[in-house]
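Tokens as discussed.
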């Protein structure tokens, strides 16, 4: 039977992953790639993809917020500062050159790492790659550009607390991780950002931006042999540094009893909440099974949480659950919001759904539906060269290999109801739950006290 494919559909068929047909379903495999390590310790991944004449580059450096020390926001400002100019290019020259070529270049910092991503035409690689090299190896952290970015950052921090959902994650991390570096807010806080200067950026760069412990991936239309020579020449001169002495591991002691953090927002008309506790690290061997089970609980629009809290009871416009997995730690939380007057029934309904998951589990029909959903959502995450470049850096950073992709469908299909029950018991917290609420304290404090001893903060106070 002939298949008719419209022109509009063609981009979606240029998949950047190979496809094997198994049991009439598409099983995605990681395309072939090369991995090698330069003498300075920099890990390089090269993956040829010739469907489109472009190249995507991604880099990951161990220079995230966990290394801020007492200067929260330093890693993020340093990552932004990479583009303030280099020894050979001003910020304006970098922007004009990239705009003229239609290329993109972005730098940022996350909780654990600094990241760079770029995309450019194959024909422009010899113009763009030297710029990327300069940005990574020879930033100058221009004072004038820094002052403008610092002012913007302070304004954004002030505006962020107007919406609880913008800052819930920071309050949650501080509540769960305490004084551990995983509590560091990536964007910083006004008191620390105010005191950071370009000397701090330069010192942070010298301490943390090294080739050893870092990786660069390139995916796209190139000859791997020639690209290897080019990348070796460009980045081989990056001077090796000492390994970061700060080895970040999971906090030894997590909360052993239920607690409540109440953040008072005087003008709040609704209560925003997280309910959860300890989660998993990203390289957990049960990661796929956990993803499937969480799909049932709160990982899709038709999840149990959304059905009960939105559809059946009308308590909220949305509810979900998530495992926020990091390299050496992670948390799990149910997230939702509701009108102030319905705070208590919303919390109780969420707890009821969690209890149902643990005590009754899920039937085969529900599990099959979740498995089909997860498999359907999986392929689009690895179609483009940019997505594949990101995948390779994730494999490097989190310590998992291509079997996560190659065996994904098999692992999903192999999840049984009995195994799902084990997953729930092992990873979905039931006891010692932690509760975070942002709302008007005068209206909800007496309500939330029933869930555990309350610590109260004011949202207008500096930090989290």
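Sequence:
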């Amino acid at each position: 039977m002939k298949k008719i494919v419209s022109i509009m559909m063609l981009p979606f068929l240029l998949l950047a992953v190979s496809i094997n047909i198994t049991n009439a379903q598409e099983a995605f495999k990681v395309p072939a790639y090369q991995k090698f390590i330069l003498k300075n310790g920099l890990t390089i991944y090269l993956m040829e993809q010739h469907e489109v004449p472009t190249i995507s580059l991604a880099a990951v450096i161990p220079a995230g917020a966990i290394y801020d020390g007492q200067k929260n926001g330093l890693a993020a400002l340093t990552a932004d500062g990479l583009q303030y100019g280099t020894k050979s290019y001003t910020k304006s020259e970098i922007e004009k050159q990239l705009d003229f070529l239609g290329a993109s270049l972005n730098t940022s910092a996350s909780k654990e790492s600094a990241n760079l991503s770029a995309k450019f035409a194959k024909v422009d690689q010899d113009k763009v790659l030297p710029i990327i090299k300069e940005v990574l190896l020879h930033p100058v952290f221009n004072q004038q550009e820094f002052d403008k970015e610092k002012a913007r950052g302070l304004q954004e921090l002030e505006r962020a607390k107007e919406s609880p959902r913008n800052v819930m994650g920071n309050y949650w991390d501080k509540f769960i991780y305490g004084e551990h570096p995983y509590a560091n807010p990536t964007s910083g806080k006004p008191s620390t950002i105010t005191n950071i200067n370009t000397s701090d950026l330069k010192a942070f760069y010298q301490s943390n931006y090294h080739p050893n412990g870092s990786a660069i991936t390139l995916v796209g239309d190139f000859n791997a042999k020639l690209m290897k020579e080019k990348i070796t020449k460009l980045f081989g001169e990056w001077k090796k540094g000492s390994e970061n002495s700060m080895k970040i591991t999971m906090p030894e002691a997590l909360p052993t009893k239920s607690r409540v953090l109440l953040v008072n927002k005087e003008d709040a008309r609704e209560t925003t909440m997280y309910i959860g506790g300890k989660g998993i690290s990203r390289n957990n061997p049960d990661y796929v099974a956990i993803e499937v089970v969480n799909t049932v609980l709160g990982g899709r629009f038709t999840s149990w949480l959304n059905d009960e809290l939105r559809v059946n009871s009308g308590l909220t416009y949305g509810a979900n659950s998530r495992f926020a997995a990091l390299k050496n730690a992670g948390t799990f939380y149910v997230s939702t919001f509701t009108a102030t007057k319905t705070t208590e029934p919303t919390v109780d309904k969420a707890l009821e759904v969690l209890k149902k998951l643990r005590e009754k589990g899920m039937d085969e029909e529900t599990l099959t539906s979740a498995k089909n959903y997860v498999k359907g959502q999986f392929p689009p995450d690895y179609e483009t060269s940019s997505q594949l470049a990101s995948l390779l850096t994730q494999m490097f950073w989190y310590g998992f290999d291509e079997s996560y992709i190659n065996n994904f469908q098999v692992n999903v299909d192999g999840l049984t109801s009995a195994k799902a029950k084990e997953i729930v018991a092992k990873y979905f917290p039931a006891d010692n739950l932690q509760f975070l609420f942002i709302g008007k304290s005068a209206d909800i404090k007496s309500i939330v006290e029933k869930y555990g001893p309350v610590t109260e903060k004011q949202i207008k106070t500096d930090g989290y």
